[in-house]
Write a structure and sequence with these properties.
Layout: E1 6-12, E2 17-20, E3 26-39, E4 45-57, H1 58-67, E5 73-86, E6 93-106, E7 115-118, E8 121-124
Parallel strand pairs: 4-6
Antiparallel strand pairs: 1-3, 1-5, 2-3, 3-4, 5-6, 7-8
């Protein structure tokens, strides 16, 4: 049995770029950065950053392009894929390794009282002395935009 599975949690390095495929589907391309902290031989703390090329298709691509922006955290699950093509200028074979998204979750930015943007309306977190008011009616899952 073989396994090609990737789990990444990092911050977007650029805004997702949404494009239409000839088939009519959507594709989003963006990058994320992940950090790793370790101690070197002398015991000094070091940090290494890796940059990943990410590709999402279909409804996943549309949701990511709509809600995610540069700097926002994301948790994604997918697979590694390397594609190749002939270079236009020199004819040399070019390679690009990408992560193809299967599922994702919006990451928590860890900022208490941070502002969330949904559909252009700005909402801020409630203050400690304010009570959260929940709607009286049930939430219909079909009303959720994704």
């Amino acid at each position: 049995m073989y396994l090609n599975k990737v789990f990444l949690y990092g911050n977007l390095t650029r805004d997702p770029e949404l494009k239409a495929l000839p088939s009519g589907g959507q594709v989003a391309n963006f990058g994320i950065a992940t950090n790793r902290t370790y101690k070197d031989k002398s015991g000094a703390k070091q940090e290494a950053t890796e940059f990943h090329n990410i590709v999402a298709f279909g409804r996943t691509a549309e949701v990511i392009a709509q809600y995610m922006k540069k700097g926002r955290p994301i948790f994604l699950e997918g697979r590694i894929q390397t594609r190749s093509w002939e270079g236009k200028e020199d004819g040399k074979k070019q390679y690009r390794t990408e992560i193809i998204v299967d599922t994702f979750q919006f990451g928590a930015d860890g900022k208490a009282g941070s502002t969330a943007r949904t559909g252009g309306d700005e909402q801020s977190s409630p203050k400690d002395d304010e009570a959260i008011k929940y709607p009286d009616e049930e939430i219909n899952p079909e009303d959720i935009p994704f």
